[in-house]
């Protein structure tokens, strides 16, 4: 079995050797040498070789005759081939001879083809280079002409379109190297033009604003905005739009701060305010135009932020500078300028309500300035007034005064010329000034977008301030100033009476110019009536004070002998000072109450005032005489002195009974002396029993005698009696009188103690 397998293996190896390429039989032969049957395999190999040799021999024998025949044929062809070679050689020689000219022509043709190809290549290259050169030339021309935005566009086209197509040439490299430099040059030049533009509009903003204030639209036509547009386009193309926007806004904010900073002397003239407003308007006209003609260089939020900043600065500046102004005309002109300023900016869409609110604040300041001016005016009128009724000699003069002041006096109208108006020049002048003040208030209220009711209320409140503060103080000044006489005080009363009566005409005047009926609900009423009443009462009080002061001057001349020993009053005459005083009072009241036969150069004192003045004078005389009796420095008073005082009181009572002023009922004026009269009667008649018995009863004869007063006077009489008794202590009558005085003093003290308890 092993032998069979070995034989089969050797057969396989032999077949593999026969079918495998020589360089690949190594592994096959190794398997033979690795085996144990090497000799047997060699035998089989030799047998196989012999078999193949026999096959080769058989094949050669089979094909030998054909090989011999082929050789014979080949020898025959050899001769023919030699002939053919000679012919080909000859033909080639002739062909070479004939082809030299053609070859030369072909070489020339080839050279032409090369040249043609080079020309085509050159034309192609030039086709790409010429646009580059043309565009670069155009770029240089645009740069020289300062057309930077088209130059930048040309530069972009040159860089991204033309140069890549042109190829790698030296001039292209130079151009490419110059492109960043040109961009920088264009950017810097554009920025320089923008700076010049910003500087120009800063300098000319007042002119722009002035034009806008005059005609509102079209002011931006004064400005060439092309540098802004150019620079914006250039920076946009360069991809630096954000840088440009930030720079522009930053620079404009700086300019805004400069524009909003007023000059320190702006308040001195209206022109200073005008320049300030013109610059601000010019600034915002430019910004508004930039807002609407560029896409996003400035936006609405940026402009509104600038305007809010400007508003706060403007209002603060105006508040500060207007506070220095004391000229109402300048304030009024400033108000009109602010209104024009606000209306102009409102036309460009800026909110201006805060400016009108500030104008209402300035209205208070304007009112204060008006009050100061009218205070001076009223004082000048009062200083120049002669405080005398106005004489009128012609109808024209009469109509002139009645046109200036609403005089309603039918009786005066009927009197023939010449005649006198009851008031002095102050009245028509003051009334005209009141109307002028109202007009001045109205002028400020115009164009403030206020309703008629608001204007009416503002005017009335301002007029009330004029009446209650300014005019009232001026009248008080006229009344209280030194050396003012009774005639002037009386005329002040007459004047204020007529001005009080004219208040409803002022009410109607205000209603006419504001078109608001005076009876409108919640309408402010004028305080003129109370103002003139207060002034009149002050003048009346001053008359009383002045009259009493004059009386005091007479009373200072009183020189009573308080220790007089005169008995009875039958032969006594009134004191000289008192006679002079009564004479003065009679003359005074005669003049100022228009009694028959009295002169009429002065104003006539109103009846009630005259009555009050007369009563006040009598009371003052009575009180002063009582004070003389009770003066602590007068330690002794004799009965003789009381008799002299009684004579003087009778003189006063005689004056009172003569009715120096009409209108008193019965003996009303005598009541002023009743305290003094009852006291003197009690002492001169020594009627103590009646006084003590009836004290406290309404029917008491000495009802107005105060026990304290009586006690004080008795003490002084007791002192006089005690000193007299030193020399007459042995007279029984004196001793009895001293005892009687002591008794009465004791009874009075008991009476006082009882009532105090």
UniProtKB/TrEMBL annotation:
<keyword id="KW-0268">Exocytosis</keyword>
<feature type="domain" description="Exocyst complex subunit EXOC6/Sec15 C-terminal">
    <location>
        <begin position="354"/>
        <end position="716"/>
    </location>
</feature>
<comment type="function">
    <text>Component of the exocyst complex involved in the docking of exocytic vesicles with fusion sites on the plasma membrane.</text>
</comment>
<dbReference type="GO" id="GO:0090522">
    <property type="term" value="P:vesicle tethering involved in exocytosis"/>
</dbReference>
<keyword id="KW-0813">Transport</keyword>
<dbReference type="GO" id="GO:0006886">
    <property type="term" value="P:intracellular protein transport"/>
</dbReference>
<dbReference type="InterPro" id="IPR046361">
    <property type="entry name" value="EXOC6/Sec15_C"/>
</dbReference>
<dbReference type="InterPro" id="IPR007225">
    <property type="entry name" value="EXOC6/Sec15"/>
</dbReference>
<protein>
    <recommendedName>
        <fullName>Exocyst complex component</fullName>
    </recommendedName>
</protein>
<dbReference type="InterPro" id="IPR048359">
    <property type="entry name" value="EXOC6_Sec15_N"/>
</dbReference>
<dbReference type="GO" id="GO:0006893">
    <property type="term" value="P:Golgi to plasma membrane transport"/>
</dbReference>
<feature type="domain" description="Exocyst complex component EXOC6/Sec15 N-terminal">
    <location>
        <begin position="44"/>
        <end position="213"/>
    </location>
</feature>
<dbReference type="InterPro" id="IPR042044">
    <property type="entry name" value="EXOC6PINT-1/Sec15/Tip20_C_dom2"/>
</dbReference>
<feature type="coiled-coil region">
    <location>
        <begin position="81"/>
        <end position="112"/>
    </location>
</feature>
<dbReference type="Pfam" id="PF04091">
    <property type="entry name" value="Sec15_C"/>
</dbReference>
<dbReference type="Pfam" id="PF20651">
    <property type="entry name" value="EXOC6_Sec15_N"/>
</dbReference>
<dbReference type="GO" id="GO:0005886">
    <property type="term" value="C:plasma membrane"/>
</dbReference>
<dbReference type="GO" id="GO:0000145">
    <property type="term" value="C:exocyst"/>
</dbReference>
<comment type="similarity">
    <text>Belongs to the SEC15 family.</text>
</comment>
<keyword id="KW-0175">Coiled coil</keyword>
<dbReference type="InterPro" id="IPR042045">
    <property type="entry name" value="EXOC6/Sec15_C_dom1"/>
</dbReference>
């Amino acid at each position: 079995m092993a032998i069979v397998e070995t034989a089969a293996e050797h057969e396989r190896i032999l077949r593999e050797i026969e079918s495998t390429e020589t360089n690949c039989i190594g592994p096959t032969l190794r398997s033979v040498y690795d085996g144990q049957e090497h000799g047997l395999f060699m035998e089989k190999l030799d047998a196989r070789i012999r078999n193949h040799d026999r096959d080769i021999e058989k094949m050669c024998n089979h094909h030998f005759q054909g090989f011999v025949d082929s050789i014979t044929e080949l020898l025959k062809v050899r001769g023919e081939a030699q002939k053919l070679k000679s012919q080909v050689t000859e033909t080639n020689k002739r062909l070479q001879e004939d082809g030299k000219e053609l070859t030369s022509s072909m070489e020339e043709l080839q050279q032409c083809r090369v040249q043609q190809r080079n020309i085509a290549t050159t034309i192609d290259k030039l086709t790409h280079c010429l646009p580059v050169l043309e565009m670069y030339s155009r770029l240089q021309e645009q740069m020289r002409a300062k057309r930077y935005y088209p130059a930048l566009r040309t530069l972009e086209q040159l860089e991204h379109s033309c140069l890549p197509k042109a190829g790698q040439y030296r001039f292209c490299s130079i151009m490419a190297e110059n492109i960043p430099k040109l961009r920088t040059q264009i950017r810097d030049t554009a920025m320089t033009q923008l700076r010049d533009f910003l500087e120009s509009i800063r300098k000319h903003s007042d002119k722009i604003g002035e034009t806008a204030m005059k005609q509102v639209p079209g002011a931006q036509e004064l400005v060439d905005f092309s540098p802004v547009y150019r620079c914006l386009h250039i920076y946009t193309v360069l991809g630096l739009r954000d840088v440009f926007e930030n720079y522009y806004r930053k620079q404009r904010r700086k300019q805004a701060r400069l524009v909003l900073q007023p000059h320190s002397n702006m308040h001195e003239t209206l022109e200073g305010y005008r320049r300030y407003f013109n610059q601000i308007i010019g600034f915002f006209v430019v910004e508004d135009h930039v807002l609407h003609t560029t896409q996003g260089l400035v936006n609405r939020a940026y402009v509104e932020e600038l305007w809010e900043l400007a508003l706060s600065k403007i209002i603060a500046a105006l508040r500060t500078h207007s506070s220095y102004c004391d000229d109402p005309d300048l304030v009024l002109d400033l108000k009109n300028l602010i209104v024009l300023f606000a209306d102009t900016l409102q036309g460009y869409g800026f909110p201006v309500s805060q400016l009108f609110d500030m104008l209402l604040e300035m209205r208070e300041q304007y009112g204060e300035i008006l009050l100061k001016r009218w205070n001076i005016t009223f004082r000048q009128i009062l200083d120049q007034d002669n405080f005398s009724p106005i004489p009128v000699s012609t109808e024209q003069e009469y109509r002139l005064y009645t046109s200036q002041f609403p005089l309603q006096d039918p009786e005066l109208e009927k009197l023939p010329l010449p005649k006198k108006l009851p008031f002095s020049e102050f009245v028509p002048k003051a009334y005209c000034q009141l109307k002028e003040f109202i007009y001045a208030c109205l002028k400020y209220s115009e164009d403030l977008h206020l309703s008629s009711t608001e204007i009416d209320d503002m005017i009335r409140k301002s007029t009330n301030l004029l009446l209650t503060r300014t005019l009232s103080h001026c009248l008080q000044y006229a009344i209280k100033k030194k050396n003012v006489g009774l005639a002037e005080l009386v005329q002040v009363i007459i004047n204020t009476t007529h001005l009080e009566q004219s208040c409803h005409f002022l009410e109607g005047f205000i209603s006419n110019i504001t078109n608001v009926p005076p009876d409108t609900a919640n309408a402010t009423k004028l305080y003129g009536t109370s103002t003139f009443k207060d002034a009149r009462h002050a003048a009346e009080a001053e008359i009383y004070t002045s009259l009493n002061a004059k009386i005091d001057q007479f009373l200072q001349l009183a020189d009573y002998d308080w220790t007089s020993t005169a008995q009875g009053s039958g032969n006594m005459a009134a004191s000289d000072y008192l006679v002079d005083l009564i004479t003065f009072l009679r003359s005074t009241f005669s003049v100022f109450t228009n009694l028959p036969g009295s002169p009429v150069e002065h104003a006539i004192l109103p009846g009630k005032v005259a009555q009050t003045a007369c009563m006040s004078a009598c009371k003052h005389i009575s009180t002063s005489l009582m004070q003389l009796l009770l003066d602590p420095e007068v330690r002794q008073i004799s009965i003789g002195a009381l008799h002299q005082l009684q004579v003087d009181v009778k003189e006063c009572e005689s004056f009172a009974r003569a009715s120096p002023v009409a209108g008193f009922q019965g003996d009303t004026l005598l009541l002023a002396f009743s305290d003094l009269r009852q006291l003197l009667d009690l002492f001169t008649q020594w009627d103590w029993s009646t006084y003590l018995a009836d004290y406290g009863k309404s029917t008491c004869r000495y009802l107005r005698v105060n026990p304290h007063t009586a006690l004080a006077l008795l003490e002084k009489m007791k002192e006089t009696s005690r000193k007299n008794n030193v020399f007459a202590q042995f007279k029984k009558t004196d001793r009895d009188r001293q005892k009687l005085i002591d008794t009465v003093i004791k009874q009075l003290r008991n009476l006082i103690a009882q009532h105090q308890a």
